[in-house]
């Protein structure tokens, strides 16, 4: 529970910093295509940072508890941010096109995380 909330908060902090960095420091460095890539990375990192915090809250003993599906969902979303957003940040800065092959791995990890959140919710029994 606590680990998910902490990692989600760290991602939230980083995404605000990276978003500001992209908007101010990279404004005259990246072309329109690079800015679009950077913004997509920021957007998906923020969505999933919020998702990770929500998972942490659901892992509270008064809600779902620390069930396996939620723990794995948080791991998948954390790794998804690294692969998806991380590869896009590097792609925007470097222009190394092969990184586009790594991005879908993060997307699949995001999808697995959301499915596991759904499964955990459907399996949860109200007390």
Report on this model:
This protein has helices at 2-24, 32-58, 68-94, 103-123. The chain is elongated. By secondary structure, it is mostly helical. The longest helix is centred in the middle third of the chain and has 27 residues, at 32-58. Helix content is 77%, strand content 0%.
Key terms:
single chain; 127 residues; mainly alpha; 4 helices; elongated
Topology record:
Layout: H1 2-24, H2 32-58, H3 68-94, H4 103-123
Helix pairs in contact: 1-2, 2-3, 3-4
Helix content class: over 70%
What count of helical segments does DSSP give?
4
Mean pLDDT, nearest integer?
91
Low-pLDDT windows of residues:
none
Number of strands: 0
Distance between the termini: 20 Å
Largest sheet: none
Q: Please trace the helix and strand order, writing H or E for each element.
A: HHHH
**Beta-strand content:** under 5%
Shape: elongated
What is the radius of gyration computed over CA atoms, rounded to a whole number of angstroms?
Answer: 16 Å
| Secondary structural class | mainly alpha
Short structural summary:
77% of the residues lie in helices and 0% in strands. It is mainly alpha-helical. The model has no long low-confidence stretch (mean pLDDT 91).
